[in-house]
Amino acid sequence: MNNRLINWFKYASPQSFYPLAGKMIPWFTALAVIFGIAGLWIGMAVAPTDFQQGEGYRIIFIHVPASWMSMFIYLVMAFWAALGLAYNTRLSGMMASALAPTGALMAFLSLWTGALWGKPMWGTWWVWDARLTSELILLFLYIGFIALQASIDDPRRADKAGAILALVGVVNIPIIYFSVKWWNTLHQGSSVSLTKSPSMAMLMLWGMLLMALSFWMYSIAVSLIRARSIMLERERNTEWVKDVLAGEGK
C-alpha cells in the first residue's frame, strides 16, 4: 500500500505529471466527443417536447451541464490552490491556473444560455435573481483570479495570492446551489436531486447526464493541455523541459 502511494506521489512534480497528462488528453478528448454526440442526439432529437416550455426547453442540455461544471471546476480549482498553500507544491498552482479559464467559460455559458432561456420564459434577458446574481459573481471570481495572477510577475507569489482569492470565493458555491431554496426566486428548482426522483422524463435526464459527462471530459482535457503549456513556460530553464523541447524539435 505504501509503495503504491509513493508511486502516485511521484506525479506531484511537473516533470512526472507532464508525460502522464499527455497520455490522458486523447482519451478524455475522445470521451468528450462521444458523450457530446450522444447527449446532443438524445437532447435535441429524441427527448420529447416539454408540455409547458415547448421546444425552447432544450437549451437546458447546454445550460445545466455548464452551470454544474462552473461550480465544480471552482471547487477543484480551490482544492488545488489549498494544496499549494499548504504544501508549497509547484504543480498545485499550475493546475489551479489551468482550470480557471475553463471555469470562466462554463460560468459564461451558464449565464448566456440562461439569458436565452429566460427571454421567452420570463419575457426578459436578465433579472437580479439570487441564482443568476450569484452565478455572475462566480464569473467575476474566475476573472479576478486570472487577472490577479497575471498582474504578479513572480509565479509563486501569484499562486499564493490567487489561492487566497479562490478559497474566499468558495463561500459563493453553496449560495448558488441553495439560492432557490433560501430565497423567493424566479429560477426554477433543481430537476435532478440525489435524494429525490428526477422531475423530468427519463430521456431528458439521460440527455442531460450525457452532456454533463461530455462537459466534464472536455474540461479535463482542455485543463490538462493548458497545464502542460504552463509547465513548459514556468520550468523552461530546467533540464527536463529542455529535453522535452529538444525531442519535439522546438
Task: Describe the structure in your own words.
The chain has 250 residues and is mainly alpha-helical. The chain has a domain at 62-231. The protein is 76% helix and 0% strand. The protein contains nine helices and no strands. The longest helix has 33 residues, at 14-46.
Please summarize what this structure is.
The protein has 250 residues and is an all-alpha fold.
Structural class: mainly alpha
Question: N-to-C SSE series?
Answer: HHHHHHHHH
Q: Give the biggest beta sheet.
A: none
| Average predicted confidence as pLDDT | 84
Helix share of residues? over 70%
Overall geometric form? globular
Cα radius of gyration in angstroms: 20 Å
Number of helices: 9
Low-confidence spans: none
**First-last Cα distance:** 40 Å
- Total number of strands: 0
SSE diagram, text form:
Layout: H1 2-9, H2 14-46, H3 60-87, H4 90-122, H5 130-150, H6 155-169, H7 172-182, H8 202-234, H9 239-247
Descriptors:
250 residues; mainly alpha; 9 helices; 76% helix
